[in-house]
Amino acid sequence: MRRIASLALPALVVLAAEPLYVLVDTAVVGHLGRVPLAAIAVGGTLLSMAVWFGTLMAYGTTGRAARRFGAGDRSAAVAEGVQASWLAFATGLVLVVVAQIAARPLTGLLAADPATADAAAGWVRIAACGAPGLLLAAAGNGWMRGVQDTRRPLLFVLGANMLSAVLCPVLVYAAGWGLTGSAVANVVAQSVSGGLFLLAVIRQAPALRPHPAIIGRQLVLGRDLLIRGAAFQACWLSATAVAARFGVPAVGAHQIALQLWFFSALVLDAVAIAAQSLVGAALGAGDGASARFVAARVTLVGGLAGVVFAVVAGAGGTVIPALFTADPAVHAQAAVVWPWFVALLPFAGVVYALDGVLIGAGDVGYMRNVTLAAALAAFLPAIWLAYALDLGLGGVWAGLGLFTLVRFVAMVWRWRTARWAVLGATRDRTVSR
Q1: Transmembrane residues, as ranges (predicted)?
Q2: How many C-beta atoms surround the C-beta of residue 422 within 10 A?
Q3: Residue 34: pLDDT above 90?
């Protein structure tokens, strides 16, 4: 338990830093009015696609690096980080170009209000310039977690986001840049953080040139995470699109609740990060008993953490939305969402803990299948039915609840079977039976 805590607590700060900055950003922009708040809801949803790629790189790299580290080959673990960094930078550049071309068409699809779509497109074009830094930071976090180095990621991410949290209100209000100031502050945070991680891998790597074969293996291993991530993105994009059809106050309230959900999820994911590193290292060392022990402990801790979050969120149900906006129409819509948000947190705590166990074990094929089933058979039909029947935000969040519960049942079953605990320094094939 002490080892789990020593990895989870620094990871908690790292994970909380980015969503906390987004919450600060949302609060700052929210006081500019309904349209800027709705614009950052739409723009933030699109930019979350870059976070999706970052999660793919971080999680895939953690599992591979942890197995190498557990097998006693730290140099090979760092080398995984070098290749992941090349992949991250190239992907980030592609995302910058795509954002400049496709921002307005995409925001137009998500926002029914033209003013909101225009404002969101401008924000996305600027904020997307931070994508290379964001992905470099994700790759750096991945290999450092794999070798169980949590101190430097803590310093890098926290320092960059604190800088940007101070810069955001200065640019938005003092400089008079409005929504543009929010986007610039975002770019600053991502670029500083990515640069620090890049410097760290340069200093430690035995070689820096790209190896297409290793990158190719990382892509193959990440295939299932990519498909799984696509299912998540389809859910979040669809949820925002449906919420936007219920009006500007509805999409504003959805943005507040969704960002709080992401914040809670990523904080709960601190235990999962520890699980990725410890489970991967144990399996790489051939110690299946230790891997199963860690899995049991993190599942318990994840569930308890979810209960604590639910109690705090429930107690603050009438206070927290007011921190983001003074608009009473948005407050009324937030009250519709809140019971769903609170009730789902304990289940989410268990799900995210088990995510870490299976990612550390490389059992992402099973995770892919479960997420696709939950998205295609539960979440997406539920929220589009909510739109067709005019059920409002309650219908959207009922879909999220169904999505979470399907994953909860399937992940707990997988954990109990122990089929995920495959021993060895690498796991070249994914067990998905």
Answers
A1: 40-60, 81-103, 123-143, 155-177, 183-202, 225-248, 260-286, 298-324, 336-358, 370-389, 395-413
A2: 15
A3: no
**Angstrom distance (rounded) from CA 259 to CA 334:** 12
In our burial notation (b when 16+ CB lie closer than 10 A, e otherwise), range 250-278 reads bbbbbbbbbbbbbbbbbbbbbbbbbbbbb
Alpha helices in 31-111 (DSSP H): 34-70, 74-110
* DSSP track, 28-41: HHHTT-HHHHHHHH
- Kindly state the average pLDDT of the residues 331-345: 87
DSSP 168-232: HHIIIIIS--THHHHHHHHHHHHHHHHHHHHHHHHHH-S--S--HHHHHHHHHHHHHHHHHHHHH
Compare 394 and 127 and report the one with higher pLDDT.
127
330, two tokens: 């948005």
Q: Record the tokens describing residue 423, joined without a space.
A: 């021993």
User: Burial of 354 by CB count in 10 Å (0-12 exposed, 13-18 middle, 19+ buried)?
Assistant: buried
- Cβ-contact 38, 116 below 8 angstroms: yes
Which of 63, 60, 65, 59 has the alpha carbon at shortest distance from 79?
A: 65
The rounded mean pLDDT for the chain is: 85
Q: What is the CA radius of gyration of the chain?
A: 21
Tokens for 400, please give them: 């999220």
Count of other CB atoms within 10 angstroms of residue 170 = 13
